[in-house]
Amino acid sequence: MSTVGEIYQYIDGFAPFSSAMDFDNAGLLAGDAGTKVSAALLSLDITPGVVREAARGQAQLIVSHHPVIFRPLKTLRPNTPPYLLAQCGVAAICAHTNLDMARGGVNDCLAARLALRNPVPVALDGPSGLRAAIAGESDREYGPREFAAFVKAALGCDGLFFASGGRKITRVGVCGGGGSEYLYDAAARGCQAFVTGEAKHHELIDAKNMGVTLVVAGHYFTEDVVIEPLRERLQKAFPDVAFRKAEAFSCPAEYL
Q: Measured between alpha carbons, how far is 62 from 245 in angstroms, rounded to an integer?
């Protein structure tokens, strides 16, 4: 039977945990590497509901994108995810910025969902040299509002907002999650649009001034695109483990 450690090593092979950005806390954050795994959940985040779902389904492991422990714990309180993981005996592997930048990771999955062709890096992470943001050619020419509507449909967003760059769009930069800082790199490399999950007010203004349509599609929707491809990849590598996407977690934001 496969173990937590073997699954960790497999993920490390294509998204090395050592390549995570300095602020991050990626890795095996709960449980023991020697634990045998017959069932595992995948989720963008580990919430109390996700841990309870794992326990009900007799899963020994949760693989998540966001770290279940991000800042040092000063207390360990009941009904919090770390407490419940320990209480239920469920391990947690969290692949965060290492998975963002990896081949086949978040940014690649986001680009694929938006049908971008010939993806190339537009910004590199200094310490690792990996692709912090990428860009590709759109499947056809879009107007700014038309492109924003396409992104909403492609990602299944409940809602999004955008700043129009006022130009036709044929080249698009992407960075899942909180990647608006790479807007400027994308603009410098000829992108007429940039898609990410979060943006600040001044970045929307800058985007309009640079003639770049900035589409802000939500942290969840620009990163959840990686979960099903990752599940399929893990299922193929470990056929003796039943990998399933958690049903207890969805986008926490509600739109009017």
A: 10
Domains belonging to the chain, first-starting first, are 4-95 (3.40.1390.30), 103-223 (3.40.1390.30)
Sign of CA dihedral 213, 20, 30, 54: positive
Computed from CA positions of residues 52, 156, 219, 95, in that sequence, does the dihedral angle turn out positive or negative? positive
Name the burial class of residue 5, with classes exposed (0-12), middle (13-18) and buried (19+) by CB atoms within 10 angstroms of its CB.
middle
pLDDT of residue 89: 98
Residue 40 is encoded by which pair of tokens? 């595992």
CA distance 77 to 110: 36
Name residue 170's amino acid: T
Q: How confident is the model at residue 90 (pLDDT cuts 50, 70, 90)?
A: very high
